[in-house]
Fold each of these.
Amino acid sequence: MIWEVFRQEKPGDYHRHVGNVHAPDREMAKLFAQIQHARRMQTNSLWVVPQSEIGEVDPEDAAFGGRTDKSYRWAMTYNDIDASFAKEVEDSEAEQREAARTRREQLESEGDA
Amino acid sequence: MDIEAVKDQAGPRQFGPNDDMPEEYRRAATRMIQFHANSEVMGGYLDKEFTRHAPSLDRKLANTAKVQDEIGHAQLLYRAAETLGVKTREEMLDELKNGEGKFLNCFHYPVDSWYEAPMIDFFVDGGAMRRQATLKSTSWTPYAHAMDKVCFEEGFHVKHGESILRELMRGSKATQERTQETFEEWWPRILQFFGPTNDESTHNDFAQEVGLKTTSNDELRNSFLNLYIPKAEKYGLEIPESPRVFERDDGTMAVREDDLDWEEFWTIAKNDYEGSHEQIGSRRRRQEAVAWVRESLDGWEGSAAGTSQAAD
């Protein structure tokens, strides 16, 4: 049986997927996860989840974020408005800009493929 | 963990579902997150009115996207509240429906014109975003994680709201006057958004001591005034003479409390204002109208449970 492993580095962080292990049951999966995915790594907590319990949506199933123009959903669209007056608005726009950039790269690389 | 240990250890993202938190902490956090979640729902319902009034397709699309975001924020927050083990999502939604659930004062006033859009989408959302940014450092980790996603999206709301204000204040003289009138109506409500200055109530003290809140209402109102009064003035809005806003000796801004209608505020806090009944009632009727969707989902969940293996 395969168990997916999620590691949290510090308290308060997200648990991030780091890999998986073979194990006959949950207890063994926790033990193997510690050895394979937490040893020598900064770790605060580990989750193990049976692989069969994970549902996946991949690019074959869905065009993530859609393919139609939804520029009205992005802070950057309103570029006649200066976001820098409030740090939280500026930060939000920066996060959106980064998300849009990585998404554009993904779409371009799919276009190449 | 006892309450003294919680106060000692309190810090950003310090506690989570694996910690044995005292009842008092879990109740306070539930009260706060439930209020926040309810406000997202009621803000979303209020905001959807603007889709009808929006003057262009772009504005209608943006407004619809914003309403979707707000309802999504409510879902994140109800989940974060559920992790405290005090109330289920269903219980919280029932409380909102039957009028027990509390939510932000500004969402107790029904809206019926496009001029009101920037009052909510720029000033109220701007104030809310100030507050939400500080809550990324709340001590309850699932709440902080919800804030990461919420703040990611809110930048669009605030900028879009400002863009509407800018457009209106560049319109005809009549449009500018209507916007100014609407601003005067909303300004006192917006100032009350952060609660009374002098009433740092016991809830607030406790919430700060255990790290649920990191910034006082007074500090938030002060920073809001410093940022948003210049914005209002930039677009040609005049700040009404009353309620009086003044600078304190330390250079921070404050409001003369006596100029605000606290009776109305406390009536709203009890969900007993005329607008409260209207907003809660109209949401309840819409909820009832789509009960069949929820029921069919529940029916499906029941019938599908335990059959996933067989379906494979």
Amino acid sequence: MAIEVRIPTILRSYTDGAKAVNAKGSTLEELIGDLESRHPGLKDRLMDDSGLRRFVNVYLNDEDVRFLGGLGTPVADGDTVTVLPAVAGGAR
Amino acid sequence: MLTISRELVDKIVAHARADHPDEACGVVAGPAGSDRPERFVPMENAERSPTFYRFDSMEQFRVWREMDDLDEVPVVIYHSHTATEAYPSRTDISYASEPDAHYVLVSTASEEETPFRSYRIVDGVVTEEEVKIVESYG
């Protein structure tokens, strides 16, 4: 068992085109660290110095992790983590 | 080139007009690989702003999963500018994250007409494309 991480189109260049990859960890932050060890560069697309990037949405199963515990959100085998770039913009 | 039905163009324009002066946004889903916009999905602008839009994160999650289940992709991602022209702003370009999508912009700045334009935005580079409006996809 592992944690499935679903990767959006724009980040699949880091995963050799894979739509989903497996990773492990007990929190989201550990999971991202584990992802980085196998897919270098991915972490920088998900996080900046202050934490999760503002325009990247990360979901644990059906919930936005911002409403859970952010990077400290516990994760476990069998969970699914989904990454979606926020769709945003505007005239400003 | 974006080929899109008149019915969908009318729906996008109506959504933009209804939400004016706030920006309106949404997607038109279509079968993966078809490049054919079919299913109109107006989205909530979580920012409710005249100068910014952002899909509500939970609504986006549901819609993206639904597209996944139906083997669809966001063929068109649209939003409106309500006081400026229908051209991608620097903000639009920096957040564009679907390299395969047609980014449609409409402007509701004028009451008389609603410009409807389409772009590709890949790696920060904007390319305007022709919009072909058809009565049906035949």
